[in-house]
Each structure stands twice: as C-alpha cells, then as structure tokens.
Design a protein that fits this description.
The chain contains 1 helix and 11 strands, in the order βββαββββββββ. By secondary structure, the protein is mainly beta. The protein has one domain: Metal Binding Protein, Guanine Nucleotide Exchange Factor, Chain A. The strands form 2 sheets. An 8-stranded mixed beta sheet has the order 6-7-8-9-4-3-10-11. It has a 3-stranded antiparallel beta sheet with strand order 1-2-5, with no helix packed on it. Strand 7 and strand 8 form a beta hairpin. The termini are far apart. The chain binds zinc ion (ZN) (2 copies). The site of one zinc ion has 6 residues, from helix 1.
C-alpha cells in the first residue's frame, strides 16, 4: 500500500500528488536560486510515473533546452523541475503539504555556486556541477534561457 504525498501552491489553484515519498536534494546552482527565489533549490526527487497534477493547470518556464519548471501562474509558487529526458522529476520541498516527508537531504548539487554564508553542515554528499558529466547541462546543444546577471557571462 503506497501512501499519498500531496502538495500545492500558495493560493491553492494548483495541486499535485505523489504515490511515494520524494527524496530531498538541495541544488545550489544559479538557475535554482533564481527559479525558487531561495539561496538554494530545496527540491525532492521522485519518478515521473508516481507524480500527477490533481487540481488546476500549472504553467511552465523552459529554463533551458533540457528542462522545464512548473509553477502556479496565479500566485507564482515554484512547484516542479524536470529534465525533459529524465524519468524523474523534482518537487519544491516547500510546496509539500508536509515538507518533513522529503528528508533527510541526500545530496548537495552545484556546490560551486553555494552562497558562502549559507553553510552546509548536514553531512550529505556534495557534488560540483562541473563534475557531474552526465548532466544534460553538459550535452551538445544545451542552451540556458536564463537571463545573464550583471557580471555573468
Ligand atoms: Zn497558486
Ligand atoms: Zn539547480
């Protein structure tokens, strides 16, 4: 018997459900920082097959050629991140009805862009984006659609 994990946006227009507990992974990349408005993306991963939208229609931002980010167009809450070619997706941990279910954190990704005053001390493994060679970010034809910040190239 699988348990139902539920979540949704701040205004309630968009809701989702998972048939298994998603596993927490913190992503410190600049795209997740901007997309979530946090100092890192507090995400939790589950198979796409175990995820469904249960109320309303999410909107999607194509943050790169490789991935889309789902959000509520009414209130702006970031809800999902998924690589197009991946069998799994991430939900934002803060959008879960009970964020406790996502823990403990399994991994810190893209630690090279971690905010220096937000220390990592949970003991989870750390990985640099540059070292994750299988990432869609490193495949031919990849293009980011994120606006460059001042001083970024
Ligand atoms: Zn909403
Ligand atoms: Zn990221």
């Amino acid at each position: 018997m699988s348990e139902l994990i539920t979540g949704g946006c701040q205004c309630g227009a968009v809701r989702y459900a998972l048939t298994q507990r998603p596993k927490a992974e913190f992503c410190h990349c600049r795209m997740c920082q901007r997309a979530t408005g946090g100092v890192f993306g507090a995400l939790a991963t589950a198979p796409k097959a175990d995820f469904s939208w249960t109320r309303g229609e999410p909107s999607f931002f194509e943050s790169s050629t490789a991935a889309k980010r789902g959000f509520c167009a009414r209130c702006g809450t970031p809800l999902t991140f998924a690589y197009n070619a991946s069998a799994s997706l991430d939900v934002t941990i803060g959008s879960l009805d009970d964020p406790e279910v996502a823990g403990p954190n399994q991994m810190h990704f893209a630690v090279e862009s971690r905010v220096s005053w937000a220390p990592i001390c949970d003991g989870a493994p750390q990985q640099r984006l540059d070292d994750y060679r299988d990432s869609p970010v490193h495949q031919p034809g990849y293009q980011s659609f994120q606006a460059p910040a001042c001083g970024e190239t």
